[in-house]
Every structure is written in structure tokens, then in C-alpha cells.
Amino acid sequence: MESLTEFIQSSREPRELKRALAVQMIQQNYPYSQIKEVLKVSVGFISTYHTKFKEEGIEGLKLKHKGSQGYLTREQKQEIIGWLQQKNYWQLSELQTKIEVKYDVVFASLQSYYSLFHEAGISWKKTQKSNPRKNPQLVEQKNRNSTLVGSASNGN
Predict the structure, then answer these.
(1) Using an 8 Å Cβ cutoff, are 90 and 119 in contact?
(2) In this structure, are residues 16 and 61 in contact, taking their beta carbons and an 8 Å threshold?
């Protein structure tokens, strides 16, 4: 019972905490109906984790899935981010090729490449080489065209 209390106090994972609380409430002779109501779980959930706790102890309450291993090591990722930060112009296809050739890694989702751009402090959104608003001639031309269109629609 003491190890269960320590686990409840130290667990940061809500699912593990709910499992441990269900087991603790059973040990304190709460009826299943009350546990179900308080924790918003099913009777099957309560039974499953009570059984797992009896068989495996605290380990039976812990999450088994730890996530997948990343395709790139921390060092490889840092190397790519450094490479991106040194460049003046970026292309997604160039990043994809570099990672595939150098590390033999092809991400299934483009989001992985976008995340690398983001970590390097680079926006991967479609950009223009220069902002047309910085060119006074283009701005003036656009304003003239807007004025002509506006006056034509007013019947002038």
C-alpha cells in the first residue's frame, strides 16, 4: 500500500495516476460503483488494473509504450540545423536530398522536414525573393491600377 501511495504522489502521467487511484480505492474497500463514478472509468478498467497490480505490482500500472526512436540522432539533427542556419536560401527538396544522402533517412511526412526548418528558426512558408512593397515603382503602379479600376466602376 505504501509503494502505491508513493507511485500516486510521484506519477506525472494522468493515465497511470487513474489506474493507481482505482487500485488504491479498491484496497480501501470502496465499491466498484463509487470508483466508477468518481474516476469516470468502467468496471472493466477497474478489474483490469486491480488484476495487473496483484500480478505485476506497480509495473502493471505503468504505461508500456515509450514512443518510437527518432530517425536522426541528436547530433545529426544539430548538424542539419547548423547547415540550414548557414544558408541564405532554402529549398525543401535540397533538405530532403541532404538528409537522404548523408543519413539514409527519408521521412514519411513533410512535417518532419518543416520541424527542422522551424528548429533552425526558418519559416518554410512560400516566400518571395524580395518584398514588392519595398519597390516604390511597383507600389505606385498598383495604386494607379486600383484608382483606374475604382473610377471606371463609379461611372466616371
Answers:
(1) no
(2) yes
Closest C-alpha among 91, 128, 136 to residue 110? 91
| 108 backbone dihedrals φ, ψ, rounded to 5° | -75, -30
pLDDT score of 22 more than 60: yes
Whole-angstrom Cα distance, residue 95 to residue 103?
12
93-106: per-residue pLDDT in tens?
Answer: 899 988 988 888 88
Nearest alpha-carbon partner for 96 in 124, 121, 130: 124
How many other C-beta atoms lie within 10 A of the C-beta of residue 119?
A: 14
pLDDT score, position 4: 86
Q: Which residues are CB-neighbours of 5 under 8 A, at least 6 positions away?
A: 24
How large is the average pLDDT for residues 21-39? 94
- What is the C-alpha separation between 40 and 146, in angstroms, rounded? 61
- HEC-encoded secondary structure of 87-156: CCCCCHHHHHHHHHHHHCCCCCCHHHHHHHHHHCCCCCCCCCCCCHHHCHHHHHHHHHHHHHHHHHHCCC
